[in-house]
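Try this one yourself first.
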């Protein structure tokens, strides 16, 4: 999606990232969008970039694209002196799942995403961004297997930061949508955890108070169905586990974000009409919802970003632009600062 100017949110994220530059590894050096984003991120001092791949090919591609990558660190698994250390660690981490030295060597030579994750695991990089030319599962699988969850976190989930232009709803047009990238059909307990994690992500990235709505096709009992019951129970659990969280539901989308509709459909709710964190009942709704807002509302969509991992790793939509990649690099850097 083409645009001429960043949102206020991403401008501020870039400023925050530049104040304490982190090392972000990009394993998809064969993608022109990623190479441009790497060059621009270094130029604007957003992060220190590491590319995985063959340096001669990267240099040739950069020349073709007329971009500067001369200051970017390039790691080639075929030549990296740390390869054996990564291989031994991968065997140690995955031996109970049948990982052998031979398999580990093959994977690390062939799968640059796993190589990038190992660099993050071993502290050679602070975070990773991938997914421009890989499916979400290819990015998430090694992250979940190798990095695992952060201490005290019950589950990993995905979210998008959505920045809607010329919008007074949410936090001046900025929302967090969860889970739109990982958990296909979360149960009530998982919805509550996703709500809490998404609220924390909103507060840390947007730096405003999260107001959380659990969405449904029903508002406060207007419809009866097992799908509604799941959301209602999720709200009950969230209130019990996270009593300080400003959260309500079940709410239809308009009741969650439009003040007049919220007042009409859910009178007395401090959330209805004012939500900036939207929790979808399943991945179908979340994926469809964010893409509608992105394509029809011309919103900037950053994600799917991950919350709950021990180290920051974030996915990209395969339809992303170079500007989108830079935004996710900046977000990943800020997540690394916060950890």
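Now uncover the answer:
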């Amino acid at each position: 999606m083409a645009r001429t100017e960043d949102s206020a949110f991403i401008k501020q994220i870039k400023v925050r990232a530049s104040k304490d530059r982190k090392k972000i590894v990009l394993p998809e050096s064969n993608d022109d969008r990623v190479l441009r984003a790497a060059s621009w991120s270094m130029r604007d001092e957003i992060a220190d970039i590491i590319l995985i791949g063959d340096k001669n090919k990267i240099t040739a591609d950069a020349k073709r694209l007329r971009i500067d990558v001369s200051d970017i660190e390039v790691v080639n698994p075929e030549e990296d002196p740390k390869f054996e250390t990564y291989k031994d660690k991968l065997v140690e981490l995955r031996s109970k799942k049948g990982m052998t030295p031979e398999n580990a060597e093959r994977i690390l030579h062939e799968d640059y995403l796993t190589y990038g994750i190992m660099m993050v695991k071993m502290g050679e990089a602070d975070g990773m961004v991938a997914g421009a030319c890989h499916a979400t599962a290819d990015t998430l699988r090694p992250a979940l297997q190798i990095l695992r969850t952060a201490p005290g976190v019950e589950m990993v989930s995905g979210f998008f930061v959505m920045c809607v232009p010329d919008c007074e709803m949410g936090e001046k047009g900025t929302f967090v949508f969860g889970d739109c990238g990982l958990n296909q059909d979360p149960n009530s307990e998982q919805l509550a955890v996703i709500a809490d994690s998404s609220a924390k992500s909103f507060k840390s990235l947007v730096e405003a108070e999260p107001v959380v709505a659990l969405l449904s096709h029903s508002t406060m009992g207007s419809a009866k169905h097992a799908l509604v019951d799941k959301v209602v129970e999720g709200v009950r659990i969230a209130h019990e586990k996270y009593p300080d969280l400003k959260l309500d539901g079940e709410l239809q989308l308009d009741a969650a974000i439009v003040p007049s509709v919220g007042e009409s459909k859910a009178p007395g709710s401090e959330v209805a009409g004012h939500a900036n964190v939207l929790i979808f009942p399943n991945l179908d709704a979340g994926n469809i919802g964010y893409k509608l807002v992105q394509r029809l509302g011309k919103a900037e969509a950053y994600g799917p970003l991950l919350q709950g991992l021990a180290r920051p790793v974030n996915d990209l939509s395969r339809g992303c632009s170079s500007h989108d990649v830079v935004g996710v690099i900046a977000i990943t850097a800020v997540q690394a600062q916060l950890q």
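Discussion: Residues 157-296 form a domain with the Rossmann fold fold (CATH 3.40.50.10750). Residues 177 and 278 are 5 Å apart (CA to CA).
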